[in-house]
Amino acid sequence: MKILYVHERFGALAGAEANAFITAQELSARGHHTGILHGPGTGKNEDGWSRVFNERFALTGDCAAQTRAALAAFRPDAVYVHKMADLEVIQTLVNSGLPLVRMVHDHDIYCMRSYKYHYFSRKICTRAASLYCVFGCGACVVKNNSGGFPLKWVSYRAKQREIALNRRFHRMAVVTEYMRDELLHNGFDAGRIEIHAPVPRMGDPGLRSSFSDRNLILYAGQIIRGKGVDVLLESLARVKSKFECIILGDGNHKTYCEELSRKLGLEDRVHFKGFIPQEELKAYYRECSVVALSSVWPEPIATIGLEVMRYALPVVAFDAGGIKDWLKDGFNGHLIPWMNRDAFAAGLDDLLQNKARAKQLGENGLRLVSARYDFPAYIAGLETMFERAIDESSQCAPHSPPLEGGYSSKPAITVPA
User: Fold this and answer.
1) Residues 6+ apart with CB under 8 A from 149
2) Nearest to 370 by CA among 317, 311, 288, 285
3) What is the pLDDT of residue 394?
4) What gap in Å lies between CA 312 and CA 258, rounded to an integer?
5) CA 8 from chain center: how many Å?
6) pTM for this entry
7) What's the pLDDT at 201?
8) pLDDT in tens, 128-176
9) Do residues 227 and 15 lie in contact, with contact meaning Cβ atoms separated by under 8 Å?
10) What's the rounded mean pLDDT across residues 352-373?
């Protein structure tokens, strides 16, 4: 197949870029031809991207005309859209009549704030897109991360148009049942939605934690308000066990969290190490007793959880968004009621004080991730999705019930409901 990726960036940056790169790399290795229609470069691993995407088409100026030109030059069998907010690009793709697949990485398509989370109250939004977003939530005015004036206007009419255009895609690939339900809530056709969790490649199969008396709690991720590092610190202040916590990552909430750590008297036990390369994480995995995932915004999936489970580490996390798809309370960690700091601390204490239990929950997690989130099955699921979209588009046949990617053929494993 010839598959044209469409993404707002070119190069490494975050999870969406990592998924686009790794899937294109693997599809190319399987004999498919991949190209990309893209926005600005990130300045990171652009050489690697150029090797994976044999043909690339940059979006500058008249994006609709450039999209038409890219389609004419590349002549794809299917178009695979990742993150792309430019509605002229999306409209041109829909008008092309080509088989269209959309990877839904987050809430951008149907949420004017893009994260389904109220900035001031921190409450998770459970509504579909509607006029309430404007008059009840005030989501027409949001933070401007592009520089210049700190706020920007978001058009409700444009958001409704974006939703309507995406409903016309042949397939919407989501990462969890939670994300599928969000699309259904916003009027998408159930027959066009498939679950394909972004499976990380297997790490070092021989690496295991020592679960030492160091009692190391690990957090790895962005330090922004939605990730709840401040709530994690308030929970750590309630932990009764002796512990050390390493916080890896950077972000615009880091300075606030460092000051909060000092105010809570945690500076001797909590250490902010900043961003570190992926390979260096293994050194922390060897010492870690539990991974803390403190997100208070509705995570689409939180792939760091899948990654650490590959190293047989238990997880303690808030029940936010799609996390409950893979974190089963009492089986591979503790799923904590949203924002309940006392319960979060109790979950950490349970695993720090009972290392045999922590090890068992970690091994359960390894079994679960190995059974449900198999990388070759994930790629095969994507291939099947493209083939079905192409076949249905060419035959103009009604959409048949979706497969569920890597979930469609699970080895037997008993986990709690």
Assistant:
1) none
2) 311
3) 81
4) 29
5) 16
6) 0.88
7) 65
8) 999 999 998 888 877 766 666 677 778 999 999 999 999 999 999 999 9
9) no
10) 95
Structure tokens at 151: 């706020």
Residue 206: the pLDDT is 82
Tally Cβ neighbours within 10 Å of residue 97: 8
- What sign for the dihedral angle of Cα 116, 120, 122, 125? negative
Q: Is 316 within 8 Å of 293 (Cβ atoms)? A: yes
Inter-CA distances, 7 with 114, 162, 225, 358, Å = 17, 16, 26, 40
Residues with Cβ within 8 Å of 347's Cβ and at least 6 positions away in sequence, in order, are 316, 333, 334, 336
> Which residue, 346, 287, 325, is CA-closest to 181?
325
Compute, in degrees rounded to 10, the torsion defined by CA atoms 74, 80, 85, 87.
Answer: 60
Strand pairing of 141-143 and 151-153? antiparallel
Q: Hey, what amino acid is at 72?
A: A
Chain mean pLDDT for the chain: 91
| 34 phi/psi in degrees, rounded to 5 | -115, 135
Structure tokens at 274: 């900043």
Place of tokens 């969000």: 182
**Residue 125, pLDDT above cutoff 60:** yes
Whether the CB-CB separation of 301 and 323 falls below 8 Å is answered with: yes
Cβ atoms of 6 and 38 closer than 8 Å: yes
